[in-house]
Each structure stands twice: as C-alpha cells, then as structure tokens.
Prior knowledge:
With 270 residues, the chain is of the alpha+beta class. Helices cover 27% and strands 22% of the residues. It binds a DNA duplex (16 and 16 nucleotides) through residues 1-3, 6, 32, 59, 74-79, 92-93, 110-116, 152-156, 159, 162, 164, 171-174, 176, 228, 250-253.
Amino acid sequence: MPELPDLAHFKQYIDATSLHRHIQQIRQLDSDLLDGISAQRFDKKLCGQRFESTARHGKFLFVRLDSGKHLLMHFGMTGDLKSSKHGEATPKHTRCVFVLDDDYHLAYACQRKLGRLGLVENPERFVEEQELGPDALDDSLDQPTFRERLQGRRGSIKSSLMNQAVVAGLGNIYSDEVLFQAGIHPEERVDELIASSVEALYWCMRDVLAKASQRQAKVDRLPQGFLLPHRHEDGHCPRCDTKLAKVAISGRHAWICPNCQRKRRKRGHH
DNA sequence: CCTATAGCCTGACGGC
DNA sequence: TGCCGTCAGGCTATAG
Length: 270
C-alpha cells in the first residue's frame, strides 16, 4: 500500500487526529520495528512529548515533538495508521500504539514488519544520510532536475522510477501508473528515452501523485482513466479496453496496456 | 559508479 | 477443514 500518495494521506490523518496531544504512554510496541533505538529509550524519549507537526519526504514521515526531535515512521509494504477513541480494538497486526490525551489512540499496524519506527534529530540530515533523491512532489524537483537525475542510468525506466535515490516516493504501483499515463513501456532503457518522453514522464508523475494524494490514495476515488483500479488479472485498459498484461521486471510485476505502452527505440539504435 | 538478484518477514489466499 | 505453495504496493546487502 504505502507509496507517496498513501504517505500524504497518513500525514493528513495524523494532522487531523493526533496533533497537539501528549503521548501518555506507548503500548503493544514490537521492538523488531525499531531502527537504531532500544524500546526503553524510544519509550523514554516519546512519553510526555506532544506531536507538534508533520513532514514527509518520499515514503518517510517525520512527526516533530516539542523536544525538537522527530518520530520517524516508515510503512514498508503493509503499514497503516488507525486513530480511535476510548477502548476501541486496535487493528490486526498493531505494532505500536500511542496513547494520547483524552483517550485518543494512534495505532501503527504493519503485517509484514518491513516498516520502521525510530527517532531522528534532524530530518534533512536523515534524508542526506539515506541518500534519498528529492521528493517526487516537492517544488524543488523541476523538470530539468528530473532529467539530470536520470542522466547516466542504463537500466529500465521502471527501476529508476522506483529507485529512491533517484526520486523519492514512487513504488511498484505508482511507477506503473506514471508509465501508463506517459504511454511508456516499463522496460524501456533510460538512456534510450527520447527527450519528449522524459518530459512526459515528469508531468505525468506530478499529475498522478498530486491527484492520488488529493483523493487520499483511495482506489475507488481515483479519476477515470487511471490504470490502478484495473491492474489485476482480466483487467482492461481504461483508455482503449485492451486486456492488460503483466510483465516481470527486476523481481516484481508491472502491469501495462500492451497497446498504449509500446517499446520504442531512439533513432539510430536497434 | 551502475544494475540485477536473493533475502528479509509474516500472513492472506486459492487450489487440492 | 487443513495443508501447502504462491504471492505481496518495501528495502538492504551482495555479487557482477
């Protein structure tokens, strides 16, 4: 589930449900999820603190505390958040519950435990240390910068779009969506893309991510013409109704419309 | 520097 | 009903 639009939703969700409340205690913590901090220290550094504000970079969420430090959240493949009041049951696979003022609870669930929780001093430095590329929706990522970031890459365009060091925020699902909107085959080599294709990719990426984020990344709220709701066996192209195809790329599956996304070659190559 | 691949981890799902 | 294989919207470490 969690790619940039989902993270944008999680950010809003925390803003709407949990901001400015103190953390009274932490429950059901699974220390497997902690990154670079002991359960004891995590507890000590968070309890009594308030959630002040949120920030996002790619698939990472930072929740600023009044101490100035930030709670780090990453959602892996199966992470989710659920806010509740009073003694409502926490979701299945809950790995951490923040008990807040007025008996509000914020539960972090993560079935496969591939997500991460931690504490960071400085989000900007964290982003540098992790060598993340610019956030795919950030203003700083203009079209020339996007082109530069792809410069020198030889593999498939899909791999580069999913590479967080190139651009942060896209995963398997949204890279498929962007490629579909741009009419580009996922196996197309980056160094063989013509300039107009790179340009199309940039604008489609911004458009797809902005629209999906606006709609809380909910599949049933996405605009007509999105591939996402159709990417399953016997799904059809929302544009030309061709049966979608599944192609294996670097150990994962990309869904494409074989009619709208044909492989092309730069002139002079063959 | 770059790319592709196996592995991590747990549980849901479908076929038998 | 139960077992078993397959698969999953992430990332990392490793080898080439």
